[in-house]
Amino acid sequence: MNFLIGVFSIVSAQSVIPLENVATSFVLNPNPFGPNIEGASVDAAGTVYAVDFRDTQFQNPNSAVGSVFPKAGLAFGKQGTKVDTLLNGARFLKDGSAIIVDAVAHKVYNFKSSSSFTEICGGAKFLQPNDLAITKSEKYVYFSGQNFTATTFPTGQSGDIWLCDRERGIVKNVGLPFYSPMDIHRTNGIEVSPNDQYLYVSSASNFNGTVLSNQIIQFQINQENGDLGQPRVLIDFGMLDKTGDVDIDGMRTDIEGNLYVTRNGAGKVTILSPTGELKGTIKLPTISNPTNLEFGGTNGKTLVIVGKCAGNLTSSCINTWESPIAGKAITYLREGTSRQVVSTISQNNRNTPLSATTNKASSNSILFANLFWILFMIY
Q: What's the whole-model pTM score?
C-alpha cells in the first residue's frame, strides 16, 4: 500500500506536456507592432514585451520596446535611425530594468527608462548581438550574434557567442575555441538551463543561399568564471524530423528545464526535454514565421509567441499557449523581486486598451491514464 502511495506521489508530481498542441490567436486592437516583432521578454509582474513597437515618440520603428501581453504599451525607447539602431533581444532584471541588445550599433544597454539607459559590456567586437540569456544570479549574460550571409563557411564569420561578467566587468568571446571543432555557423537562439549548468545555443549553416542545417549546441557553464566547456549537439533537426532547412530562432526554458524552440518558417514551436528528446509541438494558427517567445501571465504559465503573420509577412501576430509548467525567467524574477518593485513595474507600463480573440487550444493531459495503467499493472 505504501508503495502504491509512493508511486502515486511520483506520477502526480510530474508535469505532462501533450505531444500535439495548438496555440491560441491573441489579437491586439490596435496592434502597435511591426513585422520585425522580436525579442520577447517578461518582467516580474508577468507582462510580456517585444521589440518593433511603433510609437510616435520614436521615428525609427526598430528603436522601441513595448508590452505585447496582456496589454499594449510603450516600455523603453532609444532615439535613432534605421542606420544606427536596431533593438532586438531583451531580458528583464529583478530591479525592473532590462538588458537590451542593439544589433546595428553592436552595443548592449541597460534600460531603466527611455531617458535613463547606459551602455554595458562595452569594448567588445560583437559580430552583431542578436539575442541574450542570463543566469539566475544575473552575474553572467551570454549573447549570440548572427550575420545572415548566403554562405556561412568557414566557421566563426557568421555567428559568435559572448559572455559579459557584470560583476567583474569582463567581456569575452567564449565561443571562440568551439566554432570550428563544433562546426558552429549562424548563432541565434540562446538560453541558460534553470540550474545554470548549461548554455544552449542554436547554429545554422548556409551555402549559396540554401539553409543546410539547424542544430542546438549544449555547453557546460563554468560556475567560477562563466567560461564554456564540454560542448555536444543536443539536437540536430535534420535527423530529428528532416527540418534542418528551417531556422531556429528564439528559445526559452520552463522551470523544469524543457526547451521551447521557435521554427521560423514552419509555423510551430518544438518542445524538447533537457536531454534533447522530442516532448511535443505547438502549432501556431496565425503565425508562419515565429521569431521569439516567453512565459508570462498571472501564473507564469502563458507562453506568448510572436512573429510574422501567416499569409501576410508584412504584419505581426501573437499566439498564446497555456502550459502546465511555469517559465524559468518569470519564476526567478518573482523569487528575487519585492512586491513593491512588481507594483512599480506594473504602474510604469503605459498600457492602451486591447481586445483578444481566441481559438481554443486543443491539448489533453494523459497523466491520469498513465497513472491508471501503472497502478493496474502493479495490482
A: 0.88
